[in-house]
Amino acid sequence: MFKIDKIYTDILRISLPVSLALIIPFLNLTVNNYFLGQMGELELGTAGITGVYYLLIAMLGNGLHSAIQSIIARRVGEDRKEDIGKTFSQGLIISQIFCIIFIFITINITPFFLKLFIRDPSVYSLSINFMNIRVWGLPFLYLFQLCNAFFMGTTHTRFLMFGTLAQAGSNILMDYLLIFGNFGFPALGFEGAAWASVISEIIGFIFIYLVLLRNGFHARFTLFDHFKFDFSTLQLILRTSVPLMAQYAISLLSWLIFYILIEHQGERSLAISNLMRNLFAFTGIFIWALASTTNTMVSQMIGQRNHQGVIHLVHKIFSISLFLILNITPGFFLHIFGLTEDFISNGIPVLRMVSFAIIFQSASVIWLNAVTGTGNTFINLLIEITAIVFYGVYVFIVIEKLQLNLVWAWASELIYWFIIIILSIAYLYSGKWKEAGHNNLRLL
Question: How far apart are CA 135 and CA 111, in angstroms?
Answer without folding.
Answer: 13
